[in-house]
Amino acid sequence: MTIKLEQELIVTSNKTIDVRGTNMEIRNAAGITVQFAKNVIIHGLHIHQIIPAKGGKIKDGEKHLGLRSASDVDGISLFGATNIWLDHLSLHHCANGLIDVIVALNHFGKGLEERMPRCRFGFIHVVNNGYN
């Protein structure tokens, strides 16, 4: 199955997108945005050829319709989101980036040895964080 999103897909809190056992792709379309949401799992999607999509009114909550500008053409964009699990995804040829994660205002405390921001084979911006 191929999904072509005319506008970005806004994923709200406590949601799972799990396509195990199928061949599902999002292509030649807008990507997925997780903004100020928590407890989200995205598993098994193929996301590619993400292109600019128009803005407009987009449902960003159960009872809220928000005005959005044009999409930022990332495959998956995480902003102000917590407890997000991205697993077994295939991403390529997204106009801006594959996965864009905004990491800011975190506190990494004493005795923490792992699970701090880590990036392999890419670039990240980590700002306004406290490390003990």
TrEMBL record:
<comment type="pathway">
    <text>Glycan metabolism; pectin degradation; 2-dehydro-3-deoxy-D-gluconate from pectin: step 2/5.</text>
</comment>
<keyword id="KW-0106">Calcium</keyword>
<dbReference type="GO" id="GO:0030570">
    <property type="term" value="F:pectate lyase activity"/>
</dbReference>
<keyword id="KW-0732">Signal</keyword>
<dbReference type="InterPro" id="IPR018082">
    <property type="entry name" value="AmbAllergen"/>
</dbReference>
<dbReference type="InterPro" id="IPR011050">
    <property type="entry name" value="Pectin_lyase_fold/virulence"/>
</dbReference>
<dbReference type="InterPro" id="IPR045032">
    <property type="entry name" value="PEL"/>
</dbReference>
<comment type="similarity">
    <text>Belongs to the polysaccharide lyase 1 family.</text>
</comment>
<keyword id="KW-0479">Metal-binding</keyword>
<dbReference type="InterPro" id="IPR002022">
    <property type="entry name" value="Pec_lyase"/>
</dbReference>
<dbReference type="GO" id="GO:0046872">
    <property type="term" value="F:metal ion binding"/>
</dbReference>
<protein>
    <recommendedName>
        <fullName>Pectate lyase</fullName>
        <ecNumber>4.2.2.2</ecNumber>
    </recommendedName>
</protein>
<dbReference type="InterPro" id="IPR012334">
    <property type="entry name" value="Pectin_lyas_fold"/>
</dbReference>
<dbReference type="GO" id="GO:0045490">
    <property type="term" value="P:pectin catabolic process"/>
</dbReference>
<feature type="domain" description="Pectate lyase">
    <location>
        <begin position="1"/>
        <end position="132"/>
    </location>
</feature>
<keyword id="KW-0456">Lyase</keyword>
